């Protein structure tokens, strides 16, 4: 197969519809005017026979597809990813081999806000990349912060219900901060490190050219010899990181909800192409999923750079705005389950549910299991299988065979061992519903201790704002006494003082916890 410089752009070309300067038609291709209703006289009733305008209206009535259940507010752009070397000793993934450049699409998003909300809100922000590689689509679906709130996907619907609008009111008490959210955070202390990240200066990124990305979970590389190496991935913006303080964010949001997409669109249109380095932390796969005392299966925790220096595996450049907002950023479907030969998974109970949830939601949001055939979602490699029929199936398959294996010349089964390979992983355990054992506070304390005094003050202000808007005083005092006081007594007292709650006296925190300054710098390279 011969590919040009941009296989994805070539693939999209035949799908482009240029109606500029064309004579208007109905949807059966006949010429007609849809600006004037068909009426019984110039001042008479509109006729049922106006099938053309009737179809126009029917189409309009159905223009919206459901917004994403999370990360609804987003935008994105095309670009390229260039591997910075030959990583074949670690992974068979074709997009990480020597001199390989692949097309990409990146969608940046905000988790909680719905469409039409503010892009500069305090929240976890999404950073999802689809790499259209020559061995299939590789999706890297991450966030801008390197950890998460929970470590079992069974809790994800509860987390999302707790942080979105409250069920009775349809809005969160106190704007962004609310009772159900802090009740949840009180019940689930494993998220205290992630929440502190969100409430720190990292929680309000200025724009997406200065935003980091992180895969959060540990994944697995497999090389051609079947050897397994564990890894975590990060996007490091070459422009450095920039955040907003809360007052700046509220002013910007008041003027322009779409501040971040305007910034990216205008930058790309002006030829200022933002770049990110793909940084990877590698861990030996010794079967324990532990690294220097840190549980690699626990996505609520990170491995600080001081303990494992990330290596640069490549660079991504965003250089082309989408042609159509609905067809591209809105209709793209990312899934952590989209991996190519050389990348597989680990038994992290959050990741494992993500492997199911995205494919499932796409059939709902985009209306059909055929969503992978939409132009923006199609791999640049051929899709040959017997996933057939269903709503809006656009392909015209040739031949009688619809099963595999078959004896009449249909698709030929690929070598199963060469695709989803897990190295030497063996599973041996008693079936049951288990709590994920988590060290709830050490990394939060370490993070707090690594902040400069001004950054600590911003974080205290954010806790005060949030807890000051929680309507239930038991939730406020429990959060301060059980969570904040377990992180740091001084932090707990400062927050309690600000919201008029009793000051906690006995600290549960351990002051001998090491400080990892680069943990903060990883996502905060520039000046704020
Ligand atoms: C979007 C589920 C955890 C990053 C979504 C969507 C669902 C979902 C249903 C909407 C997808 C769509 O409509 O196309 C889950 C579940 C999780 C989980 C069940 C936990 C079990 C995470 C984590 C991260 C993450 C830990 C980051 C590492 C994203 C991103 C998007 C997204 C970036 C937006 C993708 C886009 O731009 O289209 N998630 N999620 N999610 N999720 Fe998750």
Task: Please tell me about this protein's structure.
Helices cover 27% and strands 15% of the residues. It is α+β, with helices and mostly antiparallel strands. The strands form 2 sheets. Strands 1, 2, 3, 4, 5, 6, 7, 8, 11 and 12 form a 10-stranded antiparallel β-sheet that branches. Helix 11 packs across helix 13 (489-499) and helix 12 packs antiparallel against helix 13 (489-499). The chain is globular. Protoporphyrin IX containing FE (HEM) is lined by residues 68-71, 74, 107, 109, 126, 128, 141-143, 148, 153, 156, 216, 333-334, 350, 353-354, 357-358, 361-362, 365.
List the helices and strands and how they pair.
Layout: H1 7-12, H2 51-61, E1 73-83, E2 101-110, E3 125-133, E4 136-143, H3 156-163, H4 179-187, H5 192-199, E5 213-214, E6 219-222, E7 228-237, H6 246-255, H7 259-269, E8 275-284, E9 290-291, E10 294-295, E11 311-320, H8 326-330, E12 343-344, H9 349-365, H10 442-450, H11 453-468, H12 473-487, H13 489-499, H14 517-521
Antiparallel strand pairs: 1-2, 1-11, 2-3, 3-4, 5-7, 6-7, 6-12, 7-8, 8-11, 9-10
Bound molecules: protoporphyrin IX containing FE.
Protoporphyrin IX containing FE is lined by residues 68-71, 74, 107, 109, 126, 128, 141-143, 148, 153, 156, 216, 333-334, 350, 353-354, 357-358, 361-362, 365.
């Amino acid at each position: 197969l011969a590919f040009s410089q941009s296989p994805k752009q070539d693939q999209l070309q035949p799908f482009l519809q240029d109606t500029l300067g064309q004579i208007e038609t109905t949807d059966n291709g006949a010429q007609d005017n849809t600006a004037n209703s068909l009426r019984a006289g110039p001042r008479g009733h509109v006729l049922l026979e106006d099938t053309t305008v009737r179809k126009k209206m029917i189409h309009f009535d159905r223009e919206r597809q459901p917004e994403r259940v999370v990360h609804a507010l987003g935008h994105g752009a095309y670009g390229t990813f260039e591997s910075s070397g030959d990583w074949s000793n670690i992974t068979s993934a074709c997009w990480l081999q020597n001199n390989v450049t692949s097309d990409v699409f990146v969608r940046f998003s905000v988790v909680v806000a719905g469409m039409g909300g503010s892009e500069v809100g305090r929240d976890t922000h999404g950073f999802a990349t689809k790499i259209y590689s020559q061995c299939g689509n590789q999706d890297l679906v991450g966030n801008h912060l390197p950890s998460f709130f929970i470590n079992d996907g069974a809790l994800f619907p509860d987390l999302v219900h707790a942080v979105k609008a409250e069920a009775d009111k349809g809005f969160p008490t106190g704007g962004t901060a609310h009772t159900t959210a802090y009740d949840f955070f009180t019940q689930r202390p494993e998220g205290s490190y992630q929440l502190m990240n969100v409430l720190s200066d990292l929680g309000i990124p200025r724009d997406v050219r200065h935003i980091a990305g992180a895969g959060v979970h540990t994944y697995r590389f497999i090389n051609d010899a079947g050897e397994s190496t564990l890894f975590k991935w990060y996007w490091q913006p070459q422009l450095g990181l920039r955040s907003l303080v809360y007052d700046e964010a509220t002013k910007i949001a008041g003027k322009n909800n779409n501040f971040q997409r305007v910034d990216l669109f205008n930058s790309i249109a002006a030829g200022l192409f933002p770049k990110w380095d793909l940084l990877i932390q590698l861990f030996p796969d010794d079967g324990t999923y532990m690294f220097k005392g840190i549980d690699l299966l626990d996505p609520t925790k990170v491995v600080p750079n001081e303990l494992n220096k990330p290596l640069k595996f490549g660079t991504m450049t965003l250089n082309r705005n989408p042609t159509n907002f609905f067809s591209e950023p809105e209709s793209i479907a990312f899934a952590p389950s989209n991996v190519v030969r050389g990348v597989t998974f680990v038994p992290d109970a959050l990741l494992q549910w993500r492997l199911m949830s995205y494919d499932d939601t796409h059939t709902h949001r985009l209306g059909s299991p055929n969503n992978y055939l939409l132009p923006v979602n199609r791999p640049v490699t051929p899709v040959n299988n017997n996933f057939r029929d269903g709503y809006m199936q656009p392909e015209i398959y040739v031949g009688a065979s619809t099963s595999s294996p078959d004896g009449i010349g249909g698709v030929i089964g690929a070598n199963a061992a060469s695709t989803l390979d897990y190295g030497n992983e063996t599973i041996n355990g008693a079936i049951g519903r288990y709590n994920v054992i988590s060290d709830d506070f050490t990394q939060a304390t370490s993070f707090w201790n690594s902040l400069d005094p001004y950054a600590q003050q911003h974080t205290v202000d954010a806790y005060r704002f949030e807890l000051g808007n929680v309507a239930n005083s038991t939730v406020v005092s429990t959060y301060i006494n059980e969570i904040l006081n377990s992180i740091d007594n001084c932090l707990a007292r400062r927050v309690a003082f600000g919201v008029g709650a009793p000051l906690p006296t006995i600290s549960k925190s351990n002051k001998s916890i090491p400080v990892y300054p680069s943990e903060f710098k990883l996502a905060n390279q520039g000046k704020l």
